[in-house]
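Next comes a single protein record:
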Amino acid sequence: MTLHPLLRRLVRAIPIILIVAVLTFMLMHLLPGDPAAVIAGSDASVEAVDRIRVQLGLDKPVVTQLVLWFVRLAHGDLGTSLVLDQTVLSAVMERLPVTASLSAVALAITVPFGVAFGVLAAYFRGTWIDQGVMMLALLGVSVPSFWIAILSVILFSVTLGWLPSSGYVPMDQGVGQWLAALIQPASVLALFQIGFLARMTRSAMLDVLDQDFIRTARAKGVSEWRTILKHGFRNTLIPVVTVTGIILSLLIGGSVIIEQVFALPGIGRLVVQGILARDYPLVQGVMLLFGITFVVLNLLVDVLYTMVDPRVRNE
């Protein structure tokens, strides 16, 4: 019996998720520090720390802890945070709206600007417009996001007072306040991805503009912008869709730094807090969920392939 191509890709992704889980587990245990000592406090006695270590199961060999963790995963249990005193799944679900909102707004900024800049650079190739767009793209790719974030806070929050410097407002408290809290961090997060998408769109567009059917459309008297947008841009959608799926994954991963700078109570900040506190179950569970999310995004990109261009077939 032949599996459906998407199902086959999903089956192939399972070993990748398992490898991510094992690597995360091992790397967390290689970090210096003792979570039992963190929980017990700086004034706790050695006996108290040892007692907490036994209660948490940290006295067992690492291999045994790994096996027990996989057994819990098989039962759908991601574990309980050592510091937050709640399950990992509930901690993630509490903070999911923040990270999802940040990534969605950043993606809404990235795609139109990145695609538009890329198309303009390709159409006006070799001109100052092309060079200017590529220079901005290179700047966005090269400059560290945390540095841009700090400069943005100093300019737009401290100096001009236009936007809040930190915090998050849920959407149910007002769309305007929700957007005001996210527009600055989302713009900083999108800056790198805009440059990346612009460069990829330009490259794909240049390949299409050199094709015979573009010259044929121009020879038939089709208007220039119709030639570019209908005949040219439509044939660049496949690489653009591919890059957009990658970009969404990068936005979710990049939220770790941005949420720290802007004090957003999202999953990225939760991971940083878990690492600092040596909260093994929390970090392991979140990283596993991240791995599953990236696999799902890749599968969605495969589905979009056939929607954008029916000639594409999954192999």
The chain has a mean pLDDT of 79. The chain has two domains: 5-74, 90-308. Residues 88-123 form the longest helix (36 residues).
